Amino acid sequence: MDYQVMIVGGGIAGLTLAVKLASCSIDVLLVEKDAKSGLIYKGELLQPKSLKILDKLGVYEDIQQNWESLPSIVMTEYDQDGDELELIGKNEFRYDIIHSKYNTSVMIPHEKLKEILFQKAKLFPHFHHIRPGKFTGFMNKHNRRIAKVKTSDEEIAIEAGFYIGAEGRISPVRNEMNVTLKKYSYNHHFLTVSFPKPPSLKTSSIITTQKRFLGLFPLPDDQVRSVLLIKPGEYKIMRKEGLESFYHTYIELLPELEGFVDQIQSWNQVQLMIPVRHNVSNYIQDNCVLVGDAAHSVHPMAGEGMNLAIQDSDVLGELLCWMYDTSQTDPIHLKWYEQVRKPRAEFVSKLSNQAALLYSFPSSAWQKLRMGGIHNTARNSKLHFKQMLNTSGLGIWRFTLMDRMKQIGLLPHFLGSRSISPYEQEKHFFTEIENYPWLKLGSDQRRNS
Ligand SMILES: Cc1cc2nc3c(=O)[nH]c(=O)nc-3n(C[C@H](O)[C@H](O)[C@H](O)COP(=O)(O)OP(=O)(O)OC[C@H]3O[C@@H](n4cnc5c(N)ncnc54)[C@H](O)[C@@H]3O)c2cc1C
Asked: Strand, helix or coil at 219?
């Protein structure tokens, strides 16, 4: 055996897992196909649960030095008639109503976060890496899986106790597993670009009209990440019309952007994003495991993809550490990882999908419905807390039928509205045993399971 664990893919999922395993003295090899960091935008928003995990991994201070903290998100709705905008709704959702040290979201450049994790992993003697090295498939030797990895000058064979597919949406490890993939697409695309931030923009902001959606998320170094929802095909038209028309779309929605958005010099800075959602039927097969986007990708509306990747790697990392620590390396124990992570990832995937649907139909009637739902959720303290907790990843408190009726206005929104005490909040946070249920096994059960 060359390594105890081989991770394919040095994205956020692979790197988070590598740090965890190396810190438990597990010999781990990380194989990344790209020699240099990617240039495409891949998500920068971290949710509270991810901050908690990154703290446990010992990189909290490093990321803190490079983040912009965003404790709330302001959602502004306008009625648009030609160039005229009339304010018809404004609501704020606050992370700091959650009783936790980690009650904020933060923006950090994706490549910066990867660099911090990579530098951390390198501190451990059990961490090994091949970069560039492309995993091309498995071969079979005496009934054992051997991975084939192509480096710049040779193809090498590597044997590991466990193989982790962390290669993102297109996953060769997944292709080698007996897995079915459910895929969904959407009726819209996004354009994303960052540019200098006007000083008045201090928190996450979503500005919408019947037809438009613009998300603005402040980044460190006085930059702001923007996400503009467009119809398929609209990008081509915009490019023909020139950057002036692109600037105009932004400035029309937020006049303070004048003098800032127009610092975008070329269309090359603007990235087209085509949202997809997929879920796989199973995360494990024998000694192969899927994490992050290889297992699930979610609509980017709720900023959850990178967070799911971190949370998968936390649970799988803790499990593998326990398996090696207690000398129980039978792959049968991997079932715990799927039991914890699959329902949670599917829950978040549904949440993101619902958020996407809110903005998928450009009509006044749909806008009214959406506005009512957002307004009623923000105004009812209990619904507000549920929304923020479910987004944070720290726990789950599902909306009931009554909640849904309040959200859509069939019941008054103030019914049952009350602030949720820290004691009551605690009951809806995931416990250590819910996160890592194998820890509850008694020693006898442990031996037999
Ligand atoms: C435009 C966009 C915006 C997003 N916005 C957000 C956001 O705001 N918040 C958020 O939480 N999430 C966001 N996401 C989602 C987030 O980026 C992903 O969910 C997250 O990056 C998944 O991490 P990962 O490590 O699973 O996969 P990836 O980041 O895709 O990493 C996979 C790695 O594997 C490598 N690899 C692939 N194949 C091989 C191979 N055969 N051999 C070796 N290496 C290989 C790749 O080079 C890559 O480095 C966004 C995604 C996109 C595309």
From this structure: strand
